[in-house]
Design a protein that fits this description.
Blueprint: E1 4-8, H1 12-22, E2 27-31, H2 34-43, E3 48-52, H3 60-69, E4 78-82, H4 87-96, E5 100-103, H5 108-142, H6 148-160, H7 165-178, E6 183-189, E7 192-197, E8 200-201, H8 204-213, E9 219-222, E10 225-230, E11 233-237, H9 245-321, H10 329-397
Parallel strand pairs: 1-2, 1-3, 3-4, 4-5
Antiparallel strand pairs: 6-7, 6-11, 7-8, 9-10, 10-11
Length: 405
């Protein structure tokens, strides 16, 4: 049986258009308002819901919230279709629990592709969720006697050995599972960005929200969610324990420490990668210098041999000139010309030696500049690495250097 697509839209024309667009691939059911859409989803679980925002009675945001709050329908992907395209509208769709947000009028190819990708990802996420649930249960059993500081210390220890974004994200997700928190995160550095959650790759809407968080305050409350932001990391917690003020405050403290530690690690990781690139550059420069020096050494050997040959030839020419007794005027001119030629050749060799010496000085200056830059990079790397033990000490003592609101 083909997947069921539930269209919740008060515009009959839109429903007819969508049915004509995707009706040959999926089963279609149409509801004209949010209340009947929620009832229809509970009666027969759809594979995807295409949800309008502005409808009479219950709007699309409220209908989506009801679907996400119900254990039966909370995993059903919701794509908002709306003419409202302001960032606040998209954020409202994200807060309501939607997986994507498409502006009207939409491109047919874009909609069909997104439905197809969403169905595939949803299936993979369901399988991954089952595996994550098993891993979470096992991890929670193993760490049942470990306190918050122990979890953070373990995160820091594991993260120190993580040299790529995916490994760092896995370390964070394990720590969040130990805290019983459902989170989405985004790691940023250089040209690389990773948006991740316990279900796997974040939805396009969630990735957009995480990216926008980079320019927000350190801690931002989003209804039932809270976001923790640093230049290189944003973490959104979906299940903040607001009914327990003490637990809620502790979660904020812990997540602030985690976000700060992750930001420091990503900064250090970036410097390590930069140092490795500079090391490669230095090795390449050394190899080129060695090749040039070998070339210069060979040139010097050739020049020395040529100089010796020139002088020997000069001596022989002079000796031949004095074979006869007395010198004529022509002989004197010939001897003078030979000496001048020899001197000119020797001067040419000297000029070549000067040129080679200048090349060697240029190589030395370039080599020293690279070494100086490498030294500065290493000092910065040591300074960044020194911040990690401070974060560890803060986590161990239970203090936080971040002021919460």
């Amino acid at each position: 049986m083909s997947p069921l697509i539930l269209i919740v839209d008060d515009c009959d024309f839109t429903a007819i258009y969508l049915e004509g667009l995707i009706g040959d691939q999926y089963r279609i059911r149409h509801c004209a308002d949010g209340e009947s859409g929620v009832a229809a989803a509970l009666a027969e679980l759809p594979s995807v819901v295409l949800m309008d925002v502005e409808m009479p009675g219950m709007d699309g945001y409220m209908a989506c919230r009801l679907l996400k709050e119900n254990p039966v329908t909370r995993d059903v992907p919701v794509i908002f279709l709306s003419a409202r395209v302001e960032p606040a509208d998209r954020l409202a769709g994200y807060e309501a629990g939607g997986e994507d947000y498409i502006a009207k009028p939409f491109e047919p190819d874009e909609l069909t592709r997104k439905i197809d990708v969403l169905l595939r990802n949803h299936q993979k996420n369901r399988e991954l969720t089952q595996r994550v649930q098993w891993a979470t249960d096992a991890a929670m059993t193993a760490m049942s006697n470990v306190g918050d500081s122990g979890i953070i210390m373990r995160l820091l220890a594991e993260m120190m050995a993580s040299l790529d974004f995916r490994s760092v994200a896995d370390c964070i997700m394990r720590a969040m599972e130990a805290f019983e928190l459902d989170v989405s995160l985004q790691l940023r550095g250089g040209d690389e960005t990773l948006s991740w959650s316990r279900e796997g790759v974040c939805s396009p809407l969630e990735e957009s929200v995480l990216g926008n968080m980079a320019s927000c305050a350190r801690i931002v409350d989003l209804g039932a969610r809270s976001a923790f932001n640093y230049p290189r990391v944003s973490i959104i917690v979906r299940n903040m324990p607001r009914t327990n003020p003490e637990h809620y405050g502790r979660v904020k403290d812990n997540l602030a420490k985690v976000a700060e530690a992750v930001d420091v690690h990503l900064q250090s990781l970036g410097r390590v990668k930069s140092a490795l690139r500079r090391g490669d550059k230095l090795l390449d420069l050394l190899q080129r210098n060695m090749d040039r020096l070998q070339e210069i050494e060979s040139r010097y050997r050739t020049q020395r041999a040529a100089s010796s040959q020139i002088l020997n030839s000069l001596v022989e020419d002079i000796e031949r000139s004095f074979v006869s007794l007395g010198l004529t005027e022509a002989q004197e001119r010939d001897l003078q010309e030979r000496v001048r030629n020899a001197i000119d050749e020797a001067q040419s060799l000297y000029d070549q030696e000067v040129e080679a010496d200048g090349a060697m000085r240029s190589l030395t200056e370039e080599f020293n500049a690279v070494l100086a830059e490498e030294s500065r990079e290493r000092e910065a790397l040591r300074a960044a690495s020194a911040a990690v033990p401070q974060a560890v000490a803060a986590a161990d003592s239970g203090d936080s250097s971040i002021e919460l609101f």
